[in-house]
Amino acid sequence: MRRRLTAACAAWLCWAILATPVHAQDTTRASAGAERTAAVYLDCTYLCDSDYIRTEIAYVNWVRDRTASDVDVLTSTQSTGAGGTQYTFTFLGQGHFAHMADTLSFSMEPGATSDAVRKTMVRVLKSGLVRYLAHTAMADQLRIDVAKAKNAADQTTPKRDPWHAWVFSTSMNGDAYAEQSTRYRYLSGTLSASRTTAAWKLRVSANENYNENQYDLTDPDTTIVSIQRGFGLSALAVKSLSDRWSAGLTGSLTSSTFLNEKRNLNVEPAIEFDVWPYAESTRRQLRLQYGIGVSAFAYNDTTIFLKTSETLPVHSLTVAYAQQEAWGTLNLGVTGRSFLNDGSKHSANLSSGVSLHLIRGLSLNLSAFYSLIHDQLYLPKGTATRDEVLLQQRQLLTSYEWSGFVGLSYTFGSLLNNVVNPRFGNDNGGTTMIMF
After folding, report:
1. Region class of 277: left (phi > 0), else alpha (psi between -120 and 50), else beta
2. Mapping DSSP to helix (H, G, I), strand (E, B) and coil, where does residue 27 land?
3. In the chain, what is the greatest distance between 2 CA atoms, to the nearest angstrom?
4. Which residues are within 8 A (CB) of 17 and not within 5 positions of it... i.e. 6 or more apart?
5. Contact yes or no for 274/282 (Cβ under 8 A)
6. What span, in angstroms and rounded, lies between the C-alpha atoms of 83 and 195?
7. Pairing state of beta strands 166-178 and 182-196?
8. 356 vs 330: CA distance, rounded Å
9. What one-character DSSP code corresponds to residue 65?
């Protein structure tokens, strides 16, 4: 029965894809020149209020698929030095606009309301679409207004910053749950300070957490309490050397009952090179970073190597690649780390994420993480008890860990989605999600 159901689902999916009119893309694009406006696809999921944008910019045709658009708008974000967010819209012309491309960015301060963000998005999107609309029949209807500054000096004189670009942040969180035989509580707190300028990037942060689980058993009549504590202090200082080179110093001090670490102090100077200029990081980057330093450990219990403390030289190499294009996004990262005095004690991490727009309406999302582990110096000697294993009170010996995700989505139906109807809540509909 399950095989027949699976086969039926696969057959339905193939029929839906093949049944999509293959001439729709050509027809839509061919008609765009004759229409009074441009067809626009906005590649922006959780970042944008799509209903608001379509309502405020109602003079373009918002389409549901990038292959049916005249203008494909990619959206990306980066954190600013003040703790806010920089949004970047990349406008890519298609069809008879294929020779036209543009990039516009804007920044929002920390704590900016969602209403302020979406209003600014609309303003920037309107500006970016002007050059495309100027080549349509809507050109005669375009009017450009520029708000005048109250004082000419407001346009040229920067505001005085009494904080000298320093930004401070703190938070405290708590969580609790209880039933008749189980109780749980979690507490955490963080404190951070950062300063970001074109020349320097400085950051200091501290965090502490407490996690307690209590279980009342009836056979035998007993209570099991599991407690985990952790503390972390990290610092980063980076100096910009050129548009591709930078040098930095990283440091951390951590403590974890789960990892049997009373204290782990790590200091590591590093240098980094980006194949493309840092200014292009919102679209593409290929960073190579090498660091060499020292790690000092103090353990709660004697380790499997009969150590209660040790200091070791370390070095690491990281390669990170990211790209965002009309066909989708790609992220790859590889990090290797080992002790200089003993190369057999090493670890390597590989992470990847891919989002591909295969054909009209069909998207494939993949992510994977793999870690090769041969540097568990902190493991306490002795065998873990059953309770320690089940309650995850201590790290166990392992040579690897991995995780993965695969998602396939297909959307079909009407390409135009200009109308906004909020009755009974918002529901985009028309999407079939198949998860593996």
Report:
1. beta
2. helix
3. 84
4. 359, 361, 362, 410, 412
5. no
6. 9
7. antiparallel
8. 8
9. S
Q: What are phi and psi of 3, to 5 degrees?
A: -65, -40
Q: What three-state secondary structure class fits 323?
A: strand
pTM beyond 0.70, yes or no: no
Residue type, 291: G
CA dist., res. 309 & res. 330, Å (int): 41
Q: How far apart are CA 219 and CA 217, in angstroms?
A: 6
> pLDDT tens string for the chain (436 positions)?
444 444 544 444 444 444 444 343 443 443 444 457 899 999 887 778 887 888 889 889 888 888 888 999 998 888 877 778 888 899 999 888 988 989 998 988 877 888 888 889 999 999 999 999 998 888 888 887 777 655 544 544 456 778 888 888 899 999 999 998 999 999 999 999 988 888 999 999 999 999 999 999 887 788 888 899 999 999 999 999 999 999 999 999 999 999 999 999 999 999 999 999 988 887 889 999 999 999 999 999 999 999 999 999 999 999 999 988 778 889 999 999 999 999 999 999 999 999 888 877 788 989 999 999 999 999 999 888 887 777 778 888 899 999 999 998 887 776 666 666 666 655 544 343 333 3
Owner of token pair 């320690």? 388
| Rounded Cα–Cα distance for residues 165 and 242 (Å) | 21
For residue 255, the cross-strand partners are 231
Instruction: Read off the DSSP letter of residue 12.
Output: H
* CATH architecture for segment(s) 241-411: Beta Barrel (2.40)
Domain ranges of the chain: 26-140, 241-411
Helices (H), 98-217: 114-133
Q: Strand, helix or coil at 391? A: coil
As a whole number of angstroms, the distance between CA 222 and CA 238 comes to: 53
Which pairing describes strands 101-108 and 328-339: parallel, antiparallel, or unpaired? Answer: unpaired
Both tokens of 64, joined, read: 């549901």
Q: Angle at CA 263, nearest 5°, toward 261 and 268?
A: 110
Q: Is the peptide bond before 422 cis (omega within 30 degrees of 0)?
A: no
Domain 26-140 adopts which CATH fold?
Rossmann fold (3.40.50)
Residue 157 CB neighbour total at 10 angstroms: 9
Q: Classify the phi-psi angles of 305: left when phi > 0, otherwise alpha if psi is within -120 to 50, otherwise beta.
A: alpha
Residues 328, 346 contacting (CB under 8 angstroms): no
Instruction: Judge whether 354 and 365 are in contact, CB under 8 Å.
Output: yes
Query: Which residue type sits at 234?
Result: S
Residue 174, CA atoms < 13 Å, CB-side half-sphere: 1
